Amino acid sequence: MARAPETGFYFEPMAERLVLVVEGSPFPTDDHWAYVGDPIEMSPELARLECATRWPGVDPDALEVEFDLDFERAVEESERRQAEDAAGLVRRATELDLDLDFLFAQAEALRSAAPEPSREATRAALDEAAEKLDSADTIGADIARAAKDKD
User: Fold this and answer.
1) CA 143 to CA 141: how far, in whole Å?
2) Domain extent listing, the chain
3) Using CA atoms, how far apart are residues 29 and 31, in angstroms rounded to an integer?
4) How far apart are CA 2 and CA 30, in angstroms?
5) CA-wise closest residue to 30 among 44, 46, 49, 14
6) pTM higher than 0.85
7) pLDDT on residue 131
8) Interval 21-78: pLDDT, tens
9) Which pairs count as long-range contacts for 77-86, CB under 8 Å and 24+ apart, including other chains?
10) Contact 128, 120 (CB under 8 A)
11) Sign of torsion, CA 18 23 28 32?
């Protein structure tokens, strides 16, 4: 049975039922339900008018708004769904077939493929970068030289 993705007014056009359904609750039937609006932003009267506007031939005065607010049933459904989700998670976790030896061998191969740079090589690269920054041929010096050449 389908569940409401968010709390709102839902309309079932075939039976012309307008129902307020709480998020996560199952719809009253397995038919197709269309979201009409948020009950915080829309009154039941406005929801009936919206149904008449979207589905020509629907009489807004004949529509009765059903309030599906059975809290006890919603709590039971929520607990049942959480238990099913937890059981599914455990089942999926036990179905994983990982070859840890293969994964460790791959990690070791990757570690040996790219040797770690020595301290001397790192120091030399940093010194070379510092020399470039200290030299007079920086971007700022190029801009100043271009401004002098322009004058």
Assistant:
1) 5
2) 8-90, 119-150
3) 5
4) 7
5) 14
6) no
7) 73
8) 888 778 888 889 999 999 999 999 999 999 999 999 999 888 888 886 666 766 777 7
9) 77/24, 77/25, 77/26, 78/24, 81/24
10) no
11) positive
